[in-house]
């Protein structure tokens, strides 16, 4: 068992980010009460109101691309774990920009609170806003399943995690349609940035199709090869596609958890 002083030191280390965030928030609020600070806040609000949606899509593109890189079997496991870390970081960044985008649109009376959560709650003529709401809901779902991925692996159901997490491939084009069609007409550089994001994701997704088809054929062949009256047995690593990566990721996570004790 860890010593009391070691446990107390660990709690203090875990509390430092929260304390630093609170102090930063207090400092920002104090500066915002001054005239230069208020001007800076208004400038930042206008900037984020215009660009937060674009930043969300760019972060989503990076998250999807990094996620595809983490799933590539030809990439060494060490680099796949780095891709996975980048995938998580970009997903969290995308959610942060999404929340900022939604809050500012509500503050500017461009959308209602219900419309930000429930698709098409704004009524007729809000099709593209509703598509953005669906994309936002799917992004939250993808983030939650990513956080809970360890539970899916521990219960030998990585296929379920893959199926739910794959909603990102639906969420991303909906977000692009929303960004290009809802609200003000996009400038040319915004349109071109979306085109580049589209090309990057299409190339990344196309690189995954052969492996996904091979995994499906492999599982189907094993299911037909097993005798109907086979005796129960424990799951082997060969029963789940890419189990080597999952095992390495669990070992990496366990090692990091042990270092923090």
Automatic annotation (TrEMBL):
<keyword id="KW-0812">Transmembrane</keyword>
<feature type="region of interest" description="Disordered">
    <location>
        <begin position="221"/>
        <end position="244"/>
    </location>
</feature>
<keyword id="KW-1133">Transmembrane helix</keyword>
<protein>
    <recommendedName>
        <fullName>Ferric oxidoreductase domain-containing protein</fullName>
    </recommendedName>
</protein>
<feature type="transmembrane region" description="Helical">
    <location>
        <begin position="159"/>
        <end position="177"/>
    </location>
</feature>
<feature type="transmembrane region" description="Helical">
    <location>
        <begin position="50"/>
        <end position="68"/>
    </location>
</feature>
<feature type="transmembrane region" description="Helical">
    <location>
        <begin position="89"/>
        <end position="107"/>
    </location>
</feature>
<feature type="transmembrane region" description="Helical">
    <location>
        <begin position="189"/>
        <end position="209"/>
    </location>
</feature>
<feature type="compositionally biased region" description="Basic and acidic residues">
    <location>
        <begin position="234"/>
        <end position="244"/>
    </location>
</feature>
<keyword id="KW-0472">Membrane</keyword>
<feature type="transmembrane region" description="Helical">
    <location>
        <begin position="127"/>
        <end position="147"/>
    </location>
</feature>
